[in-house]
Amino acid sequence: MQMDRRELADFLRRSRERLRPADVGLPDGARRRTPGLRREEVTVLAGMSADYYIRLEQARSPQPSTQMLAALARALRLDDDGRDHLYLLAGHRPPAGRKAGETVGAALFHLLGSIEDTPAQILSDLGDVLAQNALAAELFGGVCTTSENGRNIVWRWFTDPGVRQAYPREEWEHYSRLHVADLRAAVTRRSSDEAATRLVRRLRGTGEEFTRLWELHEVGVRRKTRMRVLHPVVGAVDLVCERLLTPNEDQQLLIFTPPADSAYSAQLELLRVVGGETFAAGPRAAVTVAP
User: Where does the record place the HTH cro/C1-type domain (predicted)?
Assistant: First the structure.
């Protein structure tokens, strides 16, 4: 990424001018001829040299470090969007945003509940199934909640032999590597926070396979993949899994659709009918939440 000195200079000046001294706990003082904070006040708040900040506003500075950008974002009272804009103008990738955690937002939950003709799930970036619609539950099975990682798809893949039976044996190694490479990317994005570190430590204790693949240090975010699921009632179902990211990077919506011009739509319709019979007596639950 390249630094855009002219736009960065303009953004810093405009952000400084939008602030009043009272906004940052400074007295208004007298005889202010320009709106907003003085440059010297920003440098004191950010803990940086006045000369360097002046050069930033004059579009003639070297690229600032991420530590300096973080200090400027705090000094200028930027919100998350403003902070990210500052980083991008300076030629740096913005830091990770706030995490949604295990709480699925109302709009995302409503969207999941409205999807009835194709399997869909909401997953955390570490692989925890946070919610799924009825068709996904029928296709992939329920979510175990009796252990810490019982709803985690990576944990179940490496610890529950029954999970693998739903996939062709010749593809097991492929899926193992996909799971580990995607998890590696998520752990790095999280800067190895407590939840990520604990999951990897537990997975390394499951046996040789995970440890061997983890030490390959392969990275690959699963944005769109093709898969085959072996269902005991409707048989083999080919699907395309597409991941739709949410503004919170730690949650994503996964939608499983038949490949274009395939015959598998009829199998999903049959599965939906079977699922309707399985799920009730009474209205079929639209969404299953993993507590």
Answer: 11-83
Tallying the residues shown for the chain, one arrives at: 291
> Could you read off the pLDDT of 171-198 as tens digits, one per residue?
999 999 999 999 998 898 887 688 899 9
- Note the pTM of the prediction, 2 decimals: 0.72
Integer Rg of the chain from CA: 25
Which residues belong to CATH 1.10.260.40 in the chain? 5-89
CATH topology of domain 5-89: 434 Repressor (Amino-terminal Domain) (1.10.260)
Q: Among candidates 152, 156, 210, 142, which has minimal Cα distance to 181?
A: 210
Domain formed by 106-289, architecture:
2-Layer Sandwich (3.30)
Q: Write the pLDDT tens digit of every residue in 18-70.
A: 988 888 887 776 666 667 888 999 999 999 999 999 999 999 999 999 999 99
Sort residue 60 into left (φ over 0), alpha (ψ -120 to 50) or beta: alpha
Tell me which amino acid residue 116 is.
E
- Helix segments in 23-171, DSSP class H: 39-46, 50-57, 66-75, 80-89, 106-114, 134-140, 153-159, 161-164
